[in-house]
Design a protein that fits this description.
By secondary structure, the chain is of the alpha/beta class. The protein has one domain: NAD(P)-binding Rossmann-like Domain (Rossmann fold, 3-Layer(aba) Sandwich), CATH 3.40.50. The site of nicotinamide-adenine-dinucleotide (NAD) has 30 residues, from helix 1 and helix 4.
């Protein structure tokens, strides 16, 4: 089958127990994909899979051996190599840079960068070994594009800058194997991770002046963009960073 007609069928979603990852799992499953949700959070995974055909695997993506085992388990659960990955697991911590120590910096990078890399590498290894084409989507952030005075988080913005660079490098490196690699770059999305609404007045001001569409995004809006980049509708797109931010980065 030509690469441009291949439709991925077996999807792994890290961070599948909450927010954007959970929305990806549900929409993909509704569309008939075989979906495995991966997360550290057992309750979140139970919520994602309740009343659906979604499989689950509990795993910490910073643990390399656990990721290797989890990807193999996921392939067994769906009866063949996982052929697509949405790497949505991530953490967000606000901390002024002068108060941030090296361990705090490293721990966040371990999840957002190393963990995302390990999941992608392991999926790619299986695809290369089985000579199956595939598609990978990372979650970047508009924090990789600009600084933020209200929510200082240098470790988070640095991690998402690294995700952007990783997307471009892996897109080039894995293109000969017909593995496409793209990223979605969300703005302010209403999920448990969002901190903007901790201060409702500041949130209202920001949405009025900083977001042309003047509202928060929804998890399902980001999920649909992820699934566009996963599926054959985007067959000639690789190495792209797709903003899903209501226009925030161009305002
Ligand atoms: N919500 C936003 O406004 C926003 C904006 C820009 C980017 N993003 C990015 O989108 C992605 C999804 O965010 P969300 O809003 O759905 O957040 P969320 O907090 O709702 O979900 C993140 C999930 O990742 C899981 N996770 C965290 N560490 C993990 C680990 N070590 N191993 C496995 N799973 C782990 C959590 O348990 C959680 O279920 C993240 O990468 C985030 O940085 C979100």
């Amino acid at each position: 089958m030509a690469a441009d007609t291949v439709e991925p069928r077996r999807l792994l979603v890290t961070g599948g127990g909450s927010g954007i990852g959970q929305a990806v799992c549900r929409i993909a499953s509704d569309r008939g994909m075989q979906v495995v949700a991966l997360d550290t959070d057992a309750d979140g995974l139970a919520e994602t899979s309740a009343g659906t055909r979604i499989s689950t695997v509990q795993c910490d993506i910073t643990n390399e051996d656990a990721v290797i085992t989890a990807v193999a388990q996921a392939s067994e659960m769906v009866g063949g190599p996982i052929d697509s990955l949405v790497a949505a697991a991530g953490v967000y911590r606000i901390k002024p840079a002068v108060e941030l120590d090296g361990m705090g910096f490293l721990l966040l990078m371990a999840v957002n960068v190393t963990g995302a890399f390990l999941a992608a590498r392991e999926v790619a290894r299986h695809l290369v070994d089985s000579e199956v084409p595939g598609s990978i989507v990372f979650l970047a952030s508009m924090a990789s594009e600009s600084g933020d005075t209200h929510e200082p988080a240098v470790h988070y913005s640095a991690s998402k800058g690294a995700v952007v660079s990783m997307t471009r490098q892996l897109a080039v490196e894995w293109a000969p194997h017909e593995i496409r690699v793209n990223a979605v770059s969300p703005g302010v999305i209403s999920t448990p991770m969002l901190r903007l609404t901790d201060d409702p007045e500041a949130a209202a001001r920001y949405l009025q002046h900083g977001v042309p569409l003047r509202r928060l995004g929804r998890a399902d809006e980001v999920a649909r963009a992820c699934l566009f980049l996963i599926g054959s509708e985007s067959s000639y797109i690789t190495g792209a960073i797709l903003p899903v931010d209501g226009g925030a980065t161009i305002a």
